[in-house]
Design goal:
With 565 residues, this protein is of the alpha+beta class. Helix content is 40%, strand content 19%. It folds into three domains: 209 residues, 3-Layer(aba) Sandwich (Protein Transport Mog1p, Chain A), CATH 3.40.1000; 156 residues, Glutaredoxin (3-Layer(aba) Sandwich); 181 residues, no CATH class. The chain starts with a strand and ends with a helix.
């Protein structure tokens, strides 16, 4: 590693400038929040500011991102063409400011003691040990990266700063350069992280010059507080409240909702707006008219879920979800690519917020379909977490596909059937490769996957069956009326029985999850337990639901189901 000791003027050619505020002797009053100078990005929580480069857009930061302090994506697109294949790839440069508190990076855990003196180990919200660890997790799936130049260390106004340059060439759609300036303070490393196409790096570097030359450390409002992952991700806290105490559950839900809403609003860039209406908080950069339509649609869909599936019971208070509405695809995908999920982004754990965007197909487009999927998941997770984490996948996916094609921007929903799914159903019926409904109700996911490899397609038929049993657009056989509701009620009964039988394993899963990623981890562990019990769950639910069905009833239901499509 090369080490240089430079004055500020000399360092500007290599690294962004910084200044350190000396500690004042004795107690100091809490710093007053100051408005950022015009054209500057200023953050007094993390303690930095910089001049906003032209041709870059400030991207909103997700609620559960604890240490991603700022993110910008370029508005100028650069193109790479592979000389061998002729394939082209487009890329918008981006930069992030990431705060990495030393206490969170040391070993990823923090030990506290409860009122009884017992130790409680919690996972710290920053999942990375250092910057190299961050790169390994965010770029490994894109072909990896390598250190392209020797790191350069310097000292700027008393702050140690290290410049690192990496390249990501193998298997990636286009060769990328990753350049980072790491400001090393006593308690926090600040990483200014820039990504751009290697073949256009000189142009990208020129665009980020204002960032490089004006980045400055300033006084923080208060020391960065290290929090547990559960708190940082503003979960409801199902692992810590007594599910039998409805008042405690409601109180925890109301408190969690308030924190989520405050975090979502406080993290909004200047060109975003927000609106709380009915059962939904929207935060949006999209057109206001479109945002209002989405909000009305979401409110009506939540009401429809209550009216049609309220029998599932569960929580007495459904937290008002945050729906984030991005202005276009570019902003949407840039938003999803945070540091907690990796640079590729895309995976969204439904909990703290739901995300959509305006797309070229407008109101009938896939973006609204996917929002409906998230609203369904959110409603099910909030209303009946236990059922949601034990429900057979063909029923869960079938309900999701049914709801995804609905539009609720008026009190009377508009439905369109899943044309692709119906076409599959017709093809299966013509070929005779159908599955008897009686068998479908007792078929595990593993059994379905095995059959799916052949000519039968039980997943498609299962999803069609859910459409048949619940869609208002399909005429049902008298035997099918109310059948799905009865089936799900009986499944809840069996789930409660299995919970008692598997109490030891579920308690162990709850204890294990309390040491890690909270609800998400518990949901995964719980599903594993119920996957092992899936055949028994299905058979016992079947016995409760169809005890009085005759062979003739099954034949009539099968025939009508095939004719319905």
């Amino acid at each position: 590693m090369r080490t240089l000791i430079l004055t500020t003027a000399a360092a500007l050619a290599i690294l962004p400038a910084a200044s350190a505020t000396p500690a004042a002797p004795g107690p100091v009053a809490a710093p007053q929040k100051k408005k950022a100078p015009k054209g500057y990005h200023q953050d007094t929580r993390y303690g930095f500011k910089f001049k906003q480069p032209a041709k870059f857009k400030n991207i909103a930061v997700r609620v559960r991102e604890e240490w991603l302090a700022a993110k910008y994506v370029g508005t100028q697109q650069f193109t790479y063409t592979d000389s061998k294949t002729g394939a082209t790839a487009n890329h918008y440069p981006e930069f992030m400011v990431i705060a990495m508190p030393h206490a969170a990076m040391e070993d990823g855990t923090q030990v506290t003691k409860d009122e009884n003196g017992d130790e409680n180990v919690v996972k710290i919200s920053n999942p990375y040990r250092d910057y190299d660890d961050l790169l390994k997790r965010t770029f490994q799936g894109q072909g990896g990266f390598f250190l392209a130049e020797d790191p350069v260390e310097t000292e700027i106004d008393g702050v140690s700063v290290e410049k690192r340059t990496y390249r990501s060439d193998k298997l990636s759609s286009a060769p990328l350069t990753i350049e980072a300036w790491i400001y090393k303070t006593e308690d926090v490393d600040y990483v200014v992280h820039v990504i751009g196409l290697t073949n256009h790096w000189d142009a990208v570097d020129k665009l980020v010059t204002p960032l490089r030359t004006t980045f400055e450390l300033i006084e923080k409002d208060a020391p960065l507080r290290i929090t547990s992952n559960l708190e940082a991700q503003v979960r409801l806290g199902r692992l810590s409240v007594d599910a039998a105490d409805k008042r405690e559950v409601r109180s925890a839900a109301v408190k969690s909702e308030k924190v989520i809403h405050e975090k979502a609003i406080n993290k909004l860039p200047d060109d975003w707006d927000h609106k709380l209406s009915g059962r939904v908080l929207t935060v949006y950069s999209a057109d206001k008219k479109f945002a209002n339509r989405v909000q009305k649609h979401a409110n009506n869909l939540l009401d429809w879920m209550d009216d049609n599936f309220g029998f599932l019971g569960g929580s007495s208070y459904l937290r008002k979800p945050v729906i984030r509405i991005c202005r276009d695809d570019a902003e949407y995908f840039a938003y999803l690519a945070g540091i907690n999920v990796g640079n590729g982004g895309g995976y969204l754990y439904v909990g703290e917020e739901l995300v959509t965007r305006w797309d070229s197909a407008g109101w009938s487009g896939a973006a609204v379909d996917r929002l409906n999927n998230q609203i369904y998941d959110y409603w099910m997770q909030e209303r009946n977490f236990d059922l949601k984490t034990a429900l057979p996948q063909w029923i869960d996916t079938g309900l999701k596909r049914l709801i995804s094609y609905s539009r609720h921007d008026s009190r009377k929903p508009k439905w369109r059937l899943d044309a692709n799914l119906i076409a599959y159903g017709k093809g299966l019926a013509r070929s005779g490769n159908t599955v008897d409904l009686k068998d479908l109700f007792t078929m595990t996911e593993k059994e379905m996957n095995e059959l799916q490899q052949g000519e039968s397609k039980p997943h498609f038929e299962g999803w069609l069956l859910v459409n048949y049993l619940s869609s208002p657009e399909i005429k049902r056989h008298p035997l099918a009326e109310g059948l799905l509701g009865t089936y799900l009620r009986n499944m809840q009964t069996v789930i409660k029985e299995i919970e008692k039988e598997q109490k030891r394993k579920l308690d162990a899963a709850r204890r294990q999850a309390s040491k890690g990623d909270g609800e998400r981890e518990y949901a995964a562990l719980r599903r594993q337990i119920f996957e092992k019990m899936e055949k028994e769950l299905l058979q016992r639910t079947f016995d409760l639901t169809f005890s009085d069905f005759s062979d003739g009833d099954w034949k009539d239901l099968n025939t009508h189901f095939r004719k319905a499509f």
